[in-house]
Amino acid sequence: MEESSKKGLEGTGLELPVNRHGNLKSASSDQNLLEILSDIKASKTTAVINYGASWCRVCSQILPAFCKVSNNFPKLSFIYADIDECPETTLQIRYTPTFHFYRDGERVDELFGAGEERLHDRLWLHS
Q1: Pair 60, 50: CB distance under 8 Å
Q2: Rounded to two decimals, what is the model's pTM?
Q3: Which range among 6-20, 80-94, 95-109 shows the weakest confidence by mean pLDDT?
Q4: pLDDT at 23 over 60
């Protein structure tokens, strides 16, 4: 019962790498995701949002790599948003995982699907 009440990264039930730079967050509700998006726009931080789902096998495969790579790009902000925990703000997400990249407060890129090398290359491009 207690496991199902966990949200965000903890709610995935996966063993994830430790984030050493404090640049990895997870959105646990629609309101929380809206606040994160607002912060991204206000701060003009370069950021990537990983939209996934706990039931998605491909998402479970790429999430540990997403967390691990956050340690390689300390100047980027990394956000994980579970589409089931943020249903209103993720209505536009049609495929999981989907990655949105933000620069200077604007969404500049989108990546569908998994692939650690593809993700790393795209992060390098936006860093």
Answers
A1: no
A2: 0.92
A3: 6-20
A4: yes
Q: In angstroms, rounded to a whole number, what is the distance separating the alpha carbons of residues 97 and 64? A: 13
86 given a catalytic annotation: no
CATH of 24-126 given 3.65.10.10, 3.40.30.10, 3.30.460.10, 3.40.50.800: 3.40.30.10
Q: Is 59 a catalytic residue?
A: yes
Catalytic entry in 16, 47, 59, 114: 59
pLDDT in tens, 26-75: 999 999 999 999 999 999 889 999 999 999 999 999 999 999 999 999 99
Between the CA of residue 70 and those of 10, 30, 89, 123, what are the distances in Å?
16, 23, 23, 9
Q: Can you read off the two tokens belonging to residue 104? A: 């200077």
